[in-house]
UniProtKB/TrEMBL annotation:
It comes from Oldenlandia corymbosa var. corymbosa. GO terms for molecular function: adenylosuccinate synthase activity; GTP binding; magnesium ion binding. Belongs to the adenylosuccinate synthetase family. The active site is at D107 (proton acceptor), H135 (proton donor), K235. One of its GO terms (biological process) is IMP metabolic process. It catalyses: IMP + L-aspartate + GTP = N(6)-(1,2-dicarboxyethyl)-AMP + GDP + phosphate + 2 H(+). Its EC number is 6.3.4.4. InterPro entries: Adenylosuccin_syn_GTP-bd, Adenylosuccin_syn_Lys_AS, Adenylosuccinate_synth_dom1, Adenylosuccinate_synth_dom2, Adenylosuccinate_synth_dom3, Adenylosuccinate_synthetase, P-loop_NTPase. Binds 1 Mg(2+) ion per subunit. Pfam families: Adenylsucc_synt. This is Adenylosuccinate synthetase, chloroplastic. The keyword Magnesium applies.
Length: 518
């Protein structure tokens, strides 16, 4: 759907040239009602209040949107929601080595599914990224935990958590996370293994991250400024420092001096002197002593675990559309959050990897700069953000919000070969009289068959939408698929039909129990 700037302005929406974001004509009216209700119900502090919209809120969409009334008329098999032993059977049928990966631009809710699945696996492993990941999970008492480096399986007492060689580790943050878990009654002793091959992320990397973003000015990437990119840069240009180097404090100062000197020569704003080096070395001597019990040859451990027929669950950070190769480059992360990163980030063979579950929101969000074809701008995007509480776990930054992008989702499914999807936050859409799906791209009337690499081409894209009816009732207490409103089932089944991958898990709230097995 392509609206002129003038029509966008009249709706209270804005057009965005970098992503050719398709402003949606229905958003202004239906979200205006939502805003009034939000002011009454304190929307900022609530995950999703249900607001009943009057029939007058229904909007006739423009010609580029195709109604999908035919979907409701289809003869489809009734899928009865699974519970109890049948749901358990589905989980236990997952492959010996399975993975949970993000399909979009991150923040899909991967941590919750990992937490739920973890009790059925012996090991939960992180394979890439660093503390830029922010996974929010809740324990059985409803207590909230925000994890950044520690795998989300940590709340399950029988699970061993592995931080693999592909992860970059900021030790002050890592110890702070462990201290926070321990103070809340979560035992970490003997349960977290850190790869001796993993690279260390220093405070200097965080400083450099900020300096580089400032240099880029208006073309900045929008990173978390957690030093992830600079740490991976050190790794790739081969002057990085690994966890195993902490065992050799005789050579550690020289290696750290090389890193600090390099940063100082590159950035005028980076002040480095002998005193800084002495302080850092002394600090890392203490860190080395504390980290020693965690340090493990995780490549050997992972392969021994697999040979012993134990079950492994891999937890991805970020998501495919942020992949350094497959994402919206350069507006991406610095690692490989797609399927290939599992093998390189843990040292396990491709043939060992089985089922991969893709986690996708019922709509789309992204943080930072970069293309976002289905973004809803203005008040519409703001109110969807508040309804879904779309603020970053790691940075607190507001997330950009838009309709579900089927083109990007199909692309992600192709790259990763997902055996199933976890559709999250379906409850957030419950207030809407109509819901749109971005089903196709075109440029000057010519279809674009897949998600393009060319940012200039992305700027010219017009999104074709399908419109489905909303269900306009609270679904947060539903636990069986067959009990969902027919319109909600329609939405789920249309996504399955378009991407060719079944939806096995449906999130309808933040808690552990707020999950439907389909």
């Amino acid at each position: 759907m392509n609206l002129s700037s003038s029509s966008c302005s009249s709706l209270g929406l804005e057009s965005n040239p970098i992503s050719s974001r398709a402003a949606v004509s229905s958003a202004a009216v239906l979200f205006a009602n939502h805003k009034r209700a939000a002011n009454v119900n304190g929307l900022l502090g609530v995950r999703k209040p249900f607001v009943k919209f009057p029939a007058s809120s229904a909007i006739t969409c423009s010609a580029s949107s195709k109604p999908v009334g035919a979907v409701a008329e289809k003869d489809q098999k009734k899928v009865v929601g699974e519970s109890g032993s049948s749901a358990l059977g589905r989980i236990e049928s997952l492959s010996q080595v399975s993975g949970v990966l993000g399909c979009q631009w991150g923040d899909e809710g991967k941590g919750k599914l990992v937490d739920i699945l973890a009790k059925h696996f012996d090991v939960v492993a992180r394979c890439q990224g660093g503390a830029n990941a922010g996974h929010t999970i809740y324990n059985s008492e409803g207590k909230k935990f925000a994890l950044h480096l520690v795998p989300s399986g940590i709340l399950n007492e029988e699970t061993t958590c592995v931080i693999g060689n592909g992860v970059v580790i900021h030790l002050p943050g890592f110890f702070k996370e462990i201290d926070g878990l321990e103070s809340n009654g979560v035992s970490c002793e003997g349960r977290i293994l850190v790869s001796d091959r993993a690279h260390l992320l220093f405070d200097l990397h965080q400083i450099v991250d900020g300096l580089r973003e400032a240099e880029l000015a208006k073309s900045f990437i929008g990173t978390t400024r957690r030093g992830i990119g600079p740490a991976y840069s050190s790794k790739v240009i081969r002057n990085g420092i690994r966890v195993s180097d902490l065992r050799h404090m005789d050579t550690f100062p020289q290696k750290l001096d090389l890193l600090l000197s390099d940063a100082a020569s590159r950035f005028q704003g980076f002040n480095y002197g002998p005193e800084m080096l002495r302080e850092e070395v002394e600090k890392y001597k203490r860190y080395a002593e504390r980290l020693e019990p965690y340090i493990t040859d995780t490549v050997h451990f992972m392969n021994e675990t697999i040979s012993q027929q134990k079950k492994v669950l891999v937890e991805g950070g970020q998501a495919t559309m942020l992949d350094i190769d497959f994402g919206t480059y350069p507006f991406v992360t610095s690692s490989s959050p797609s399927a290939g990163g599992i093998c390189t980030g843990l040292g396990i063979a491709p043939k060992a990897v089985g089922d991969l579950i893709g986690v996708v929101k019922a709509y789309t969000t992204r943080v930072g700069s970069g293309p976002f074809p289905t973004e809803i701008l203005g008040k519409g995007g703001d109110l969807l953000r508040f309804a879904g509480q779309e603020f970053g776990t790691t940075t607190g930054r507001p997330r950009r919000c838009g309709w579900l992008d089927i083109v990007a989702l199909k692309y992600s499914c192709q790259i990763n070969g997902f055996s199933a999807l976890n559709l999250t936050k379906l409850d957030v859409l419950s207030d809407l009289p109509e819901i749109q799906l971005g089903v196709a791209y075109q440029v000057d009337g010519t279809p674009v068959k897949s998600f393009p690499a060319d940012l200039r081409l992305l700027e010219q894209i017009k999104v074709e939408y399908e419109v489905l009816p909303g269900w306009q009732c609270d679904i947060s207490s539903v636990r069986n698929y067959s009990d969902l409103p027919r319109a909600a089932q329609q939405y789920v089944e249309r996504i399955e039909e378009l991407v060719g991958v079944p939806v096995h898990y449906i999130g309808i709230g933040p808690g552990r129990d707020a999950l439907i097995y389909k």
